[in-house]
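Here is one chain, start to finish.
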Amino acid sequence: MAVSEMITSDTRLWHTRKSQQRLIHKDELSPRSVQIAGSMPSLMADAARQNRELGAEIIDINMGCPAKKVCKRAAGSSLLQDEKLVAAILSAVVRAVDIPVTLKIRTGWDTQNRNALNIARIAEDCGIQALAVHGRTRACRFNGQAEYDTIASVVQSVDIPVFANGDIRSAKDAKAVLDHTGATAVMIGRAAQGNPWLFREINHYLEHGSLPESISGQEFAAQVVDHIRAIHRHYGEYSGIRIARKHVGWYVERLPGGETFRRSFNQLDNHNEQIDHLHTYLAGQNNWDQAA
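Its structure:
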């Protein structure tokens, strides 16, 4: 499983604290993937080269993000409107590095313009090694339901691996989407927030046809606390405390008293207080089926 975080292709902006924390480092676990976003082929190629030098093992190109701050720069999913520019970017990045380059897209820019098949064929011709397709258009953002027929058509149209994405929240969802689309794999996004065990559940279900045993309360608590401590270490006191708040909110939203605890946790401004408060809350939980 590869995890990547998006970074701008404009290397002039990499000096910021946020960008520095998103850059790949050679001592990180493998496979090391970094996702780049931008609209200028030369800048994208340079960003790919520099990330390769930093230790990236996969370069992923984002043409799926619908966020306004990305699209207003003619990047992310807005690029789907310009197939010639898509080809220029993909060709430039693939030529720039000697590691696999992958691509993330949506089904099109609106429901009247679903051109994922064209983009997929362009990607394959340009040397893209794998393609992830979110089952919504740019205009859909995250509204409505993902549709998988377009993804199934993409799978039939290209020979590179295709990963299906969108509204996959459980192991049964993953199996149903794989069966419907014929995709090589699924890509999980927001459903993994607060539930990193989802990947284990999916793998077990696909292999055995049943869900694994639920995690114990002790395992749940230990992994949550370890995660929050890692956030503190990576981001530092100020940012770490604030980033920890949203992750803890995701972890506890299904637990009894989770909303009350989240509000009290968000008032804390010291990392040791956060850890102590989290320990106390998790130690008082009894119904761990809701957390698994």
